[in-house]
Amino acid sequence: MSDLGPRLAIGVDIGGTKIAGGVVDEEGRVLDRERRDTPGADVTDTESVIVEVVTALAQRNAVVAVGIGAAGWIANDRATVLFSPHLAWRHEPLHESLADRLAMPLIVENDANAAAWAEYRFGAAVGQAVVVCVTLGTGIGGGLVIGGVVYRGAYGIACEYGHMTVVPDGRQCACGNRGCLEMYASGRALARDARELAAESPAAAGTLIRLAGSPDAITGPVVTAAAAAGDPVALSICTTMGRWLGRGLANLAAVIDPSMFVIGGGVSVAGDLLLRPAREEFAHSLTGRGFRPVAAVELAAHGPDAGLIGAADLARRHALSR
Amino acid sequence: MSDLGPRLAIGVDIGGTKIAGGVVDEEGRVLDRERRDTPGADVTDTESVIVEVVTALAQRNAVVAVGIGAAGWIANDRATVLFSPHLAWRHEPLHESLADRLAMPLIVENDANAAAWAEYRFGAAVGQAVVVCVTLGTGIGGGLVIGGVVYRGAYGIACEYGHMTVVPDGRQCACGNRGCLEMYASGRALARDARELAAESPAAAGTLIRLAGSPDAITGPVVTAAAAAGDPVALSICTTMGRWLGRGLANLAAVIDPSMFVIGGGVSVAGDLLLRPAREEFAHSLTGRGFRPVAAVELAAHGPDAGLIGAADLARRHALSR
After folding, report:
1. What are the residues whose beta carbons fall under 8 Å from the beta carbon of A165, sequence distance 6 or more?
2. Mutating which of A251, A281, A282, A297 best tests the B interface, going by the most B Cβ atoms within 10 A?
3. Among A156, A251, A259, beta carbon nearest to B165
């Protein structure tokens, strides 16, 4: 089929606020894009917007497949969304709902699995034997690529790294448990710690409050921006979060023993402000340190595009393997 | 080769106190045995006893391979022991040391990986898609079989489930960290909790002290025996440990999403005294409960033989695949 030129595929990343689509070539480059607002929590509306995005891209490009990346639990059939945190999908046969409306091969994939795949294929982790990808957004997304294969678990819901309990009876998590890692290492944790400090001491949090406009308006991006500008309070909050991330990585190394960790997602724009304390705490907390190789901890290469790039590439491979 | 009859292999389980060898057939049955004391911490002496055990068994049986299962970190070459907790092996080229003295194909395998393999092939977890095996001895050994393949990690040292940190700044562990799971869910934890209680209140721990002879002589087996006999204090200690085990399983389910957990090792003789609270706490702590299948939690089928059965079977498969 090489005489047909590069086989393009569409990747769609369903976020809580935006639905981003892209046409991706075989080298992981994004050649064309479409973007819409996510229409609230309505399932039918969301699916209609996905169809809109895909149809628009497919009209302008010859594509062989489409991959939908969504936050949530996708069953191992890669067709059913068992549960999605910010959408109304509950045991939703997404593949079935979309297949009739999109005349091309389709897969549904967890967004963090897709991002991990993008980093393994085209990004920070090319050629790595075992890659753990941690996507730091509002919460934590997780992916794992073992020997060039996305690991999904027995039921499709592995790699929920953010829901390892790291503090018994700790902070209440939306999942129902307390003390989940994502309550300490995520954009939500950054914002919460900063707001709590601002409530305790508006003076100490002066820069953060000024940047945000008010204590309640402090967000994760405000904290990372203030830290990047040298605000010592914001730096301290980032360091605390980085250390929790490092402890989480040490737990994952005990279980998975990867050759590389890749840290992506919106919060990873903090770069070394986060990675330096994370690496230090990881090395300090790694069981058996001194008797084992230490996995690399690297920043993701594809930023916010990783999800759609990975979804597209997985869809193309799935379509061409049939 | 079927005209040669069943291909037998030798499995050797190197424990801190005993070296147990067995001849294992293709259905996982142990047909012949040899057993010696582990000669202290001396590397050369230990290797000589391994050779003795294997030689004795090989003289009486036509075997095609030998598998050595050892507690510790075995590099992915399945030849080098990076580190062993109760033996003096540190970057020990065990395969090389033994190969000249044993004229047959040889592999070295982590004992908990071997046990997991035995349960997958011949025991509680036959046909399971993803099996997490937790071996509760003095500490915790861990194994993982994914799609019929032992998962070893990038460097051969995955599945150290006992060294997930579950309590920040918790109990000091021999690995150098604090708060490792095996400080709360292991034979050592059972004995320690019972001794601490006996020191605080000899009256409350009366049955345990009577069974053991003195407070300091209380061991894990004493606690499980007292619990089986209905001693409420021992039952409570087993329940506490079972709950910690359940929390550990919930963390592992978040990361690995197995179809089954198998609980083996010496402490698992406590059976339902341990498994009932473990299952309850697992179901109670599982992230996303209600939206996902719940993995089974089952007792291991092969008890103390699992390590040598698995090591033998892995060695046979390795030898016959070359």
Report:
1. A177, A178, A179, A180, A181, B166, B247, B250, B251, B285
2. A251
3. A251
Long-range contacts of the stretch B25-28 (C-beta < 8 A, 24+): B26/B316, B27/B122, B28/B118, B28/B121, B28/B122, B28/B123, B28/B302, B28/B309, B28/B313
Chain A window 82-111: which residues touch B at a Cβ cutoff of 8 Å? 82-83, 90
**Beta-carbon pairs below 8 A across chains A and B:** 139
pLDDT tens-place values along chain B, 322 residues long: 445 567 999 999 998 788 999 999 999 999 999 999 988 777 889 899 999 999 999 999 999 999 999 988 898 888 888 887 767 778 888 888 898 899 899 999 999 999 999 999 999 999 999 999 999 998 999 999 999 999 999 999 999 999 999 999 999 998 899 999 999 999 999 999 999 999 999 999 999 999 999 999 999 999 999 999 999 999 999 999 999 999 999 999 999 999 999 999 999 999 999 999 999 999 999 998 988 899 999 999 999 999 999 999 999 999 998 7
Of A163, A251, A293, the CB nearest to B155: A293
pLDDT digits (tens, 9 = 90+) for A141-182: 999 999 999 999 999 999 999 999 999 999 999 889 999 999
**Contacts for A160 with CB less than 8 Å, ≥ 6 apart:** A142, B254, B255, B257, B287, B288
- Domain layout of chain B by residue ranges: 2-118+305-320, 127-300
Does the domain at B2-118+305-320 match CATH 3.30.420.40? Answer given as yes
Q: Is B147 on the interface with A (CB under 8 A)?
A: no
What is the token pair recorded at B42? 């001396």
Closest by CA to A167, choosing from A273, A221, A243, is A243
As for the ipTM of the complex, it is: 0.94
Considering only CB atoms, B247 lies closest to which of A165, A257, A287, namely: A165
Nearest residue of chain B to residue A168 (CA atoms): B167
Q: How far is A131 from chain B (nearest CA, A)?
A: 9
B73, A288: Cβ pair inside 8 Å? yes
Which CATH architecture group holds A127-300? 2-Layer Sandwich (3.30)
CB atoms within 10 A of CB B25: 18
Same fold, B2-118+305-320 and B127-300: yes
CA distance A170 to A280: 23
> Pick from B154, B176, B247: which is nearest to A257 by CB?
B154
**Calpha distance B104→A63 (Å, rounded):** 55
CB A10 within 8 A of CB A51: no
Q: Which pTM value belongs to this model?
A: 0.95
Handedness of CA A245, A281, B134, B120 (dihedral sign): positive
